[in-house]
Design brief:
Radius of gyration: 25 Å
Number of helices: 13
Structural class: alpha/beta
Low-confidence stretches: 1-61
Shape: globular
Strand content: 15-25%
């Protein structure tokens, strides 16, 4: 059809020269077409890693197998990043950590607690543990509330030393930041009103509106699944929010039909509102890690050593934090109530 339109446009040229020119262009187009197709089928990602076509995902999987293992082996040695943190003077001599302040039992302010406005939760415990090891004082932490879609930029811009904020380790993020070994295992899951006909991540989502956090793995997973036909084409993904808790508010107001987020966060949200519940099983497997600058090798190694000690500590370690903060909402499922075993594919 393209060649037919081209010949039609050349009628006024006349003579053999015009036809020769048309034939030459047609041959050139035929030669270039496979290259164009090859490039377009490879997929294009935006700045947040969203919108990857299937070919792009396949290449990413080959180049980045097992993202939760793409980290450095543990070490207690100091280095330039740790030295810089320790060189801060006076009140500024603190570890600066990006966290959430709205994720129930992960990083939140409990108005009913004795501390009043103090941040607490599973992620907060880990941040205190890291500060204690590096600076000798568990309270030498400056917490900064970071929206979901600002986690990588906050690290890259130097606004924080690290992010401890239910942050999934994935290949797209590994292009921008470095991660520790995983400290928690979870998966994407659906949250909806108990009275909803939605039964899980299945055909009952057809025509439904789904809320996700901007910059989250939930959003990129849903976008890709919709392109690949695993999610109904008419499911509405247009509602995104800065922080995950905002999705629960949208659900309560009836502005959306469902929320997709990490099962660990969804369980906490269900605990806050007895009218909603988890629907269906998790449909991915994901791991949370501590995120740091890509060139902060000494800090990554130190955090990995701290995580090993935290997992092994039976008096005040990982299991104690899980029992205090997460067991009431997540139970004793071994897939989540035990720390993931680390593997280190990067030796240097």
């Amino acid at each position: 059809m393209r060649a037919r339109r081209l010949r039609s446009g050349l009628k006024g040229w006349g003579g053999v020269g015009a036809m020769a020119f048309a034939c030459a262009l047609a041959v050139l187009f035929a030669l270039l077409l496979p290259l164009v197709r090859s490039h377009s089928e490879g997929g294009v990602a935006d700045d947040d890693g969203h919108g990857l076509a299937h070919g792009g995902q396949a290449r990413a999987a080959q180049e980045c197998p097992d993202p939760e293992k793409q980290t450095l082996a543990p070490s207690g040695a100091d280095g330039p990043t740790i030295d810089e943190i320790r060189s801060r003077e006076g009140e500024k001599r603190k570890l600066i950590v990006g966290v959430d302040q709205n994720s129930y039992r992960w990083g939140y302010r409990d108005p009913n607690s004795g501390g009043g406005a103090e941040l607490e939760g599973f992620d907060i415990d880990l941040a205190h543990r890291i500060a204690e090891d590096i600076l000798g004082d568990a309270d030498a932490v400056q917490f900064k509330a970071i929206p979901t879609n600002q986690r990588e930029p906050a690290i890259q811009d130097g606004r924080v030393d690290m992010v401890v904020r239910t942050m999934t380790i994935n290949c797209a993020r590994l292009e921008k930041v470095a991660f520790s070994a995983p400290y928690f295992r979870t998966g994407q899951q659906l949250l909806a009103p108990k009275s909803s006909p939605i039964t899980g991540y299945d055909g009952t989502l057809a025509g439904k509106s789904i809320c996700t956090a901007a910059g989250s793995t939930a959003l990129s997973t849903l976008e890709q699944d919709q392109k690949d036909g695993r999610l109904a084409a008419d499911a509405d993904l247009g509602t995104t929010v800065p922080n995950q808790l905002d999705c629960l508010v949208r659900l309560q107001l009836g502005e959306v039909d469902a929320v997709v987020t990490d099962g660990a966060l969804a369980a906490s949200q269900a605990a806050q509102d007895p009218t909603v519940q988890l629907k269906g099983d998790p449909f991915t497997t994901e791991y949370y890690g501590v995120a740091m600058k890509k060139d902060a090798d000494d800090l990554v190694r130190r955090v990995n050593r701290i995580l090993e000690e935290w997992r092994a500590d039976r008096s005040d370690g990982w299991q104690n934090s899980y029992d205090e903060w997460l067991s009431p909402t997540m139970g004793d499922d071994p897939a989540q109530s035990e720390p993931p075993a680390p593997e280190y594919l990067r030796k240097s």
